[in-house]
Design brief:
With about 150 residues, the chain is mainly alpha-helical. It is built from six helices and two strands; from the N terminus they run αββααααα.
Length: about 150
């Protein structure tokens, strides 16, 4: 009998610790999703058909940043965690736009590709920031999952 009392007393603390672990894993996954999207979209900047560049990375940046941030906000409810995909995406673009030790750079200046890269950054950042602002301070799914203080479920 005493063992069950100890289990019941330890249960709320272990549930809180388990929730913190899940939030941490989720935050890491959101950041990695933003990094993955940034790598994929940056690699698509030089896509062309014949001699014409195709700005598919601009469209993908707008869609993926908005969807990743919306999903993070809906599942977690935290604005800081919802911003992680955008932070990861931005870091990747900055790193891939800087020359490496051998002088290699993925996002080159001096041709039409620079305009696609610039448009991708602007559209991706604006899409992400607008989604963060539009989704508000709390999501509907996350607020339903957590009971309010004093509420009876």
């Amino acid at each position: 009998m005493a063992d069950t009392d100890l289990d019941e007393a330890a249960s709320p603390a272990s549930a809180s610790a388990g929730r913190q672990v899940l939030v941490g894993v989720g935050a890491l996954l959101y950041l990695l999703a933003g990094v993955g999207a940034g790598v994929f979209e940056t690699l698509l900047v030089p896509v062309r058909h014949g001699t014409t560049y195709i700005p598919i990375s601009v469209v993908l940046a707008a869609i993926t940043n908005a969807l990743l941030i919306w999903l993070a906000r809906q599942l977690n409810g935290s604005g800081a965690i919802a911003a992680l995909p955008l932070i990861g995406w931005t870091i990747v673009f900055v790193v891939m736009g800087v020359t490496g030790p051998g002088g290699d750079v993925l996002v080159q200046a001096g041709n039409e590709m620079q305009w696609i890269a610039l448009a991708m950054v602007l559209v991706g950042l604006l899409s992400g920031i607008a989604t963060l602002a539009r989704t508000g301070s709390r999501s509907r799914l996350a607020s339903r999952a957590r009971p309010q203080v004093g509420s009876i479920r």
